[in-house]
Amino acid sequence: MPVALVTGVTGQTGSYLAEHLLGEGWTVHGVVRSADDTAENAAALRSGVQLHVGDLEDPDGMRALVAATRPTSIFNLGGISSVAYSWTHPEETGRVTGLGVAALLDGAWQLHRNTGQPVSFVQASSAEIFGSATEIPQTELTPLGPVNPYGAAKAYAHHLVGVYRGLGLAASSCILYNHESPRRPAGFVTRKITREVARIASGLSTDLALGNLDAVRDWGWAPDYARALALAATGEPGNYIIASGESHTVRDFVEAAFAAAGISDWQRFVRQDPAFMRPLDATALVGDPTKAREVLGWTPTVSFADMVSAMVESDLKAISTS
Q: Are 208 and 234 part of one and the same domain?
């Protein structure tokens, strides 16, 4: 029976990944930062995940956890996940999102060497490693050019995965483009949009303040991206773009959210606030998922409009039952 060790298991994608692996018959060990860290997405965790307290800022502790659980696959979804937070906490972002990966990779390599057991490693990387990319869409060969501390930390981890793959570890880096769901935390702009649209549709608000409406991103459905991580664990080791291949602006996302709530004249509710503008914003981040499709057999299943609609419907339901 395959055994997984998943960091970031309480997060949006980590919880979907845990559910998917359990459904495929895996034994799943999840890493949480404290014994009280199970509130977020707890339903998924109660269905069979074995939880362990661990911290990516504790390299010896992470190595010990790998040795104790003896996973056949390690999935690293832990770390700082907010670009905005990384600007105000650059050192912490570097330690957790960047350096924390080194201990996990070393733990995987030592487990393989000491036991002879095959161990695969899957890093949840980010399109932010391409930040200043001059080619659209980006591919696995696009030069890295992060423009924020989060992207820089992810770029370091991405390179390190390649170093250990060269050493002989079955290590893959899945470069995840923006992926959303009703489990997306409220601190992210997409969830802020859908929640506020639901409040406006319910008569609880009249104002949605946002930053750059022209930022271009490639949005997908988080459960689809969790499935891609699982496929990478047993597929050919390498780097994989996990994306829809479609480009949309934040304005497109806003319009789709209001449409899902039955509101067509959305402009009167939206205003741009300089306080929400990033110091530097990445260029148009749109991925080419051809390699993932051809090598892993992965394709997305949920459209952009259906993804946004599912989020709005979830937030409307939360309001109606509160």
A: no
Band of the pLDDT at 184, cuts 50, 70, 90? very high
3-state secondary structure 246-278: CCEEHHHHHHHHHHHCCCCCHHHHEEECHHHCC
pLDDT (tens digit per residue) in 110-136: 999 999 999 999 999 999 999 988 899
Is 91 a known active-site residue? no
Q: Which of 128, 180, 196, 255 is catalytic?
A: 128
Catalytic residue chosen out of the listed positions 15, 126, 173, 181 = 126
Same domain for 136 and 200: no
Nearest CA among 244, 251, 245, 262 for reference residue 309: 262
Task: Please tell me what DSSP assigns to residue 11.
Answer: S
What's the domain range around 313?
189-217+247-283+301-320
Q: For tokens 């034994």, what's the residue?
A: 27
Question: Would the pTM of this model clear 0.90, i.e. be above it?
Answer: yes
Q: Is the peptide bond before 137 cis (omega within 30 degrees of 0)?
A: yes
Mean pLDDT on 259-288: 84
Q: Number of folded domains in the chain?
A: 2
**How many other CB atoms are there within 10 angstroms of residue 262's CB atom?**
9
